[in-house]
Amino acid sequence: MRIDELEPTPTDAASLEIPEMLLGSVRRHQAHLATLIESLRAAGVDEATVEASIRELVDSYAAELTAAVTQMLEADVRD
Question: In the predicted model, is pLDDT for residue 50 greater than 60?
Answer without folding.
Answer: yes
